[in-house]
Amino acid sequence: MLKTLVSATALVSVALLQGCDGTSVSYTQDVQPILSKHCSECHLPGGQGEEASGFLVDSYTSVLKGTKHGPVVVAGDPLSSSLYRLISGRVDKSIQMPHSKEPLPVSEIELIEKWINEGAKDN
Question: Which PROSITE patterns match (predicted)?
Answer without folding.
Answer: PROKAR_LIPOPROTEIN
